[in-house]
Structures are given as C-alpha cells and as structure tokens.
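User: Round two. Same drill as before: sequence, then structure, for each protein.

Assistant: Same drill it is. First protein:
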Amino acid sequence: MTAHSPTFQPHALRHILHQELHARPSIVVTSPATIRSWAFFLEPEQHEAAALHWQQLLDHQRHLLLEEAPGQQALVQIGTLRLKWERHIEFISLTLYAEGNHSTAHLLAELPPRWLATIPGALIAAAAIDVQPITDTPPDDFLAQIDPLGPATVASKIADGTGYLFTDFQLHDGMTHFTIIDGAILPRQLGRIVQRLIEIETYRMLALLAFPAARRLQVDLALWEKRLAEVMHDLESAQTIAAERHLLTRLTQLSAEVERSVANSNFRFSAAAAYYRLVQQRAEDLREGRLTGYSTLKGFLERRLAPAMNTCATVYRRQEELSARIARNSQLLRTRVDLKLQEQNQQILDQMNRRARLQLRLQEAAEHFSVVAISYYGAQIIHTLAKGIAPWIAPLTPELMAAMALPLVALLAFLSIRRLRKRLHVSFPDTPQEPSPHG
C-alpha cells in the first residue's frame, strides 16, 4: 500500500514567508573580480517608474535570467556582466559583477546608454569593489603604496584572516572604493563579503540622511524649549481666566509646531536608527582582525559615524520629551482654567440664588399686599350688597356688615394664597427657599 501525504489548505502567505529566508542572496565571486554598485533614493511615487524602467531593459536587451523575485529583485546575465537589480523601501540598487580587472566605464559600456541616463531617483551611494588574488597583490606591497600623510586608511584582516580589506572612504570618480585581497576566501563567502560592503556603504548614507534634519531641529528645539519655559513662567503670575486662556492659546500653537515637526521627522529618525543597526551588524559580520597602525572598518565607522547617529538619537529624544512636556503642561493649564470656570460658575449660581431669595421676599411682600387688597375689595363688595338688602337686615347697617365680614375675607384670601404657594412648590421643587433663621 502506497502512503499518500494528506492534503492541507495552505496559508495564503506561506510561500511568500518561506521564500523570505532566501531573499537577496549573495552572488558567488571569484578573484580577480570587479564590482560596481549604485543606490538611487526614490520618492514614494517613483517606485512604479523604477519597476517599469527595469522592465524596459529586460524587454530590449538580450539577457539570461538567473534569479528573480518579481518586483523585488532580479539577477540577469548580459554579455560578460552579471547585473543585479533590487528594490527596497526607499531605494533601488544596481550592481554589476564582472570577472577580471575592468574599469567602471568598461562595465557601463555593456549597458544601453539611454537606459542608464533615465534611471529614476537620485544617486545616494556608489561603491567600487576590486577583488585581487593575494598572489598578484601582496598585502605588504599594497600597504607600501599608501601615503602616510594622505587620508586615513582602513586596513584589516577579514574572514578570519583569509583576506584583507582596504579603503579610505573617500570619493574617487564619485564612488567609494574598496579593495579586497583574497588569500583563501571561498567564492560564496567572498560574495557575502562583497554584499556586506555594498550594504555598509548604502545604509551608511541612508542613515546619515537624518543628520542634516537633526542639526536644523537642534536650533528649533532650543527656541521651542525657551518658549515653553516662558509660558510656564507667565503662568505663575496669571491671575485672571482671560490671562490663562491666552497662555493656553500660546501653548496650543507651540504644541502644533512641535507635533508638525514630529510628524515630518519621526520616520526619518526611526529609519536612521534601523539603518545604523544594519551597518553595525554588517561590519561585525566581516570578522575583522587588526593590522598594526591601521583602523578596522568597524572601528572607523564607530568613531566617524556614531557621533552623527548619537546626535540624531538625542534630537529624536529631545523632540519626543518636549512633545510630552507640552502635553502635560497643556493638561495642567486646562485643568487650572476648568477650575477657574467652575469657580466662576459657582459664583454665578450663588448670585442667582441670592436674586431668587430676594425675588421670593418681594413675592411674599406682594402676597401680603394682595391679602390687604383682596380684603378691601371684598369688604367693598359686601358693603354694596348690604346696601341692597338693608331693609331685610335691619337693625344692621351696611358699614357694620362690611366690618364684620372683613376678618373672614382676609382669612380666606390668606388661606387661598398660601394654598397656591404650596401647589407651586410641589410643581417646582427646585425653587430657592428662604433659609431658616436657625440654619
């Protein structure tokens, strides 16, 4: 009986996630070799144009496709060249590999001139790597050619001492040049070293994109911190709610400026930190050994690149802390204004209560006058009626009848008004009452 594997429903992203382990593999390199790489910074709207630009080369140039991850990377053979194209989040890279020793112009001559001239984006990094066998270029001879009074040179053993690396990190013909002397480096390992050097140069430049912004923000942060201090100083002397509202307006304007700066620079600073970590990791992967009198690539980058990255990190922290301080102070000021408003509202309510009590007293006084007025008119009505029936009530006179009825009329008027007041109090229980003299 033949065993069959069960059929499972695969996850929609399983293949993509699995292939991520094999993304951007290094290329096998044997010495001697010439490698040239360029990285072009792209704006978000240029990514589609970059993909179309690469497709134009494939459509019009005879090539052999060696590797491909559609839309992300491709490795093709064009003549004697191996051409690697990669698309990243912020840039695309183009790397040329050729066996033997060649000039940059010789390599570029293999590509269509018009295609090269229309590459989207702006050049951000360029690396030239020459790989020489140790038999043709002994390390001591190469070191002897270095001018001791010239630019600082990075020189170190790499790959556990099986090779040598030299560079001065200066631009020569618009490119940073690296020389690798191959003692006994395996071809695939040599390809990984080449890739790490290209990534170090590219990520180094991308990390430094945040540095000019950090230097500009240092000035702005000093002004914003001074303005915040002035607002909080003025808060101590603000006594009226109008003054506190004015301070809150100033604080809100300051918050808007800082938050706009955070929104504009937050991604750049975060990306710089990520790129810097990649540079450190790639430098660590070279497994360098020191050569007497020379700095290693890792040590050189730590001394020259770390201060700029520390500045970016410091400005990023200052900006975040300032934003948090403004938020706290704004909340404090809003709370203070709210308390003042509540106090003011309480005073208004107290005034309304006093006015209501005064109105109640006036109403009671009016009620007393009403009892007198009703009693008077009631007595007049009885007097008039008594005149009409005078013959039947003799010996009582109309005046006597009115005088006798007056207390009864007054009592009825008083009781009627009191009953009306009670009914109104039941209908409107929140009507302010006169406080008890014993309260």
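Second protein:
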Amino acid sequence: MGKIIKRLFELNLAKNRSAFLWGPRKVGKTYWIREHLNHLPLIDLLKTDVFADYKSRPALLRERYQNHSQKNLIIIDEIQKIPELLNEVQWLIENKNLSFLLTGSSARKLKKGHANLLGGRAWRRTMTPLSCLEVDKFDLEKIMTSGLLPPHYLSPSPLEDLRAYIADYLKEEIAGEALTQNIPAFSEFLRVAAITSSELLNYTNVGRETGVSPKVVRVYFDILEDTHLGFRVRPWVKSKNRRMIETEKFYLFDVGVTNFLARRSPKTGTPEFGKSFEQYILMELLAYKAYKSPDMEITFWRTCSNQEVDFIINDKQTAIEIKASKRVHEGDLTGLTTLSRDGPVRKKVVVSLEPEPRSLADNITVLPWREFIDRLWGHEY
C-alpha cells in the first residue's frame, strides 16, 4: 500500500463563524484536527472523564469558556454524545461572539432528541474516505478489499481492521442508534445491504432476507444515512418521452466495508469488481461534492425498459457511465445514446479501464478512470 500524501479537506471557515464537521468514524476528523488545529482547545468527549464532567454539568462549558479569546475556535469532538452542550454553544456564540468546530459521526441522536442544531449559526462540513488524489501508489484492485478509510488503507492487515470496525462499531454502536436488541437481525441487514449496494432499494425483499418488517428496514437505511455510512441516490425523473424508474438506489459509504460485509474479494474482470468500481467512482464524486461543490446534484437515469445511465450530474450537465472493462464496446453506449434523445446532455463520459482516452460518435468520450478523476477535481464537470 502507498501512503497518504495530504488530505483534500479544508475547513475554509470565515472569521467568527462556527461549523459542524460530520463524517463516519475513522474517516480522519480527529487526526486532521490534531495535525492542523493542535494549538486550539479541544474537548474530546470520547475521553470518559471529560464526558462525565460535561454530561453531569453542561453549564461547565459556559463557565470555562465565556472569557475565551474570540480569535480562536473551540473544538468539541463527538458532539452528539452530549446534545445538551449545544444550548451552551449557542449562548456563547450569541453572547460572547465565540466560534466552535463541532465534530460528530451521527446527527441522528441530535435530530431524534430535538437537539439545538444552532439554527443556521454553524456551517456544515463533511469529511469522506480517501480520494486517490490523497495517496501515492494507488492500487485499484487492493482498495476494493481494504477500502479507503485511512487506518484500513494503511494497515498491513486491513481485513482484521475491517472485522473489528464492523463488529465494534457498525454492529453494536450503530445498532444502538436503532434502539434494537436484535443485533443478529441488524447484522444480517448490514450483510444484505452490502450485497444489494448499488441496486434499487426494495425494503420488502431486504426485510424478507433479514427477518424484519419493511418498516424496520426503512429505519435501518435511514440510520445508515444519518450516520454517514450510506447514501441514497435519487433517480432523474424529468423525462417527457419515457416512463422512468422512481425508486432510489443505496450505496454504502466505503467499498472495503461493502465487500467485507458481502464476503467478497473482487478481482479485475469479475461482475463483483464491476459493482465495486461503480461504488468507488461514486466515492470520488461524493468527495468532490463534499469538498468543492456542496450543491452538486448526483442522480441516476433508468427507464422502465431498463435503459440506464449510472450517474447524472447537475440535471444532465454531465452523464457518466461506468464500465470496468479494458475495452468499451458500442453496446455499452446504449444508455447514453438513449438519454441524448431525451434532451441535450452537455457532456457524456464513459469511465473505464481503457489505457487512453478516445472520442466516439454522439459526442461520447471514453476516459481512463484516473484521467476522469483528474478532470473531475479540475472542475471540468
């Protein structure tokens, strides 16, 4: 494995502004803070003594920091552990003009407890798993197993680390978000969610496989989204000429976690690698959205006759088809050409394993995957 060069995440916080920084566990939030903001006060709620102090007396925050310099951020790590602190944070923002960086891996506890989310007083930032631009010696096949959470990517034993992550965090702590005692059912749900990642959501089928009701399955998917462990991708449904699928797709947040849960080790040329390659490209799109273009829309296009384009960016500004093959054939282009007949598409791209870019009929461009990512981060789409 290579090494991490530099994280692309930038806080970009204006003077006297506060922010929430969200992202799943082990994505690198705390490490980034210690590397870039180690001169600032840090309240780490993962420390049991710190947690106990503030949990028993949230007013302690006001008592300790009301005379703090307005020039320096105050950082609270894992804010969702004590939602009551947010009332004190708001008071300090409004009355003492202080600024905060509030990190967390789940907004669900805050939302469900009707916690004070500061009513627009805090900007929103998100940290994602690694992009290939953040590491050297990037090996596409290896990351399908290790994934792109920094400690897993760098680990000499990524499968052992993934096993611990899933057992200790996903199956227990995230199951706690569901307020369920049925850990086996939730564990089975995670496996089925991984196997069906990138497919159309079908709560009934997943419930049948998992042994719980479709209503409970919907709650489980909501939890994965609220904890930044998965993403729904909406369908593009504005066609005037065709009946469109209106069902969402769901992807887990990290290709390594997905493949570990699904018990597969994708090799180039297999259908499993194709699904993983599509998920990896989505991870790059989501990282770019989080860091550079928060208003970017990512949808997919699929007709009731199963014509499909994997991703649509910003209402047909760019259409992206993913093909994990070393040679793109004419039959691979039918989704893009059919989409073109539904109205103008500014750019049509096939992301592939081909070694060189080439241009095809109907203004379709075939790109090597790495060149596509370079162009993406170069703001071409």
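The first strand starts at residue 18 and ends at 22.

User: Perfect.
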